[in-house]
Every structure is written in structure tokens, then in C-alpha cells.
Amino acid sequence: MVEAYLLITTASGTARDVLSDVREVEAVGRANVIAGEFDLIATVEADETQELLTLVTDEIQSIEAVGRTRTCIVLG
């Protein structure tokens, strides 16, 4: 099992809409709007790193108004 935190930037004024879409992704355990360099943080789980890559690139980054993402894999 691979756990990770996803940090997400969004287009100006779209954080709440993107948050709603992110929360609909099955692999997302929790997601919140945050202050700082990024607009959202989400916790995700995948069976392996390749599945995590697919999740980030195909499901999260394809959401309209998502800018860039940073994936932080949990080590312990």
C-alpha cells in the first residue's frame, strides 16, 4: 500500500469547486483547502506506485482548474 499527500494549486477563485471534484475521487481519503503556496491538500492511497502515478496524472490533474500538483509519498 502506498500512501501520499497531494498538494494542489488551482486557478484563482476555484479552490472550493476543485475541492468538491477531488473529494469525489475514490482513492482520496480526505481533502481540504489550505493556506500558503498550495490551495488544497489531499490524502490518497494506492496499491503500488504505478497506480499512484495513474491516479495523480489521469484523475487529479485532469480536473478542470487544477494547476500543478506535488506528491509527497509517506515513508513511515
TrEMBL record:
Superkingdom in the source lineage: Archaea
InterPro entries, sorted: Dimeric_a/b-barrel (IPR011008), Tscrpt_reg_AsnC/Lrp_C (IPR019887)
Gene3D superfamilies xrefs: 3.30.70.920
Organism for this UniProt entry: Natronobacterium texcoconense
Protein name listed in UniProt: AsnC family protein
Domain Transcription regulator AsnC/Lrp ligand binding: 7-75
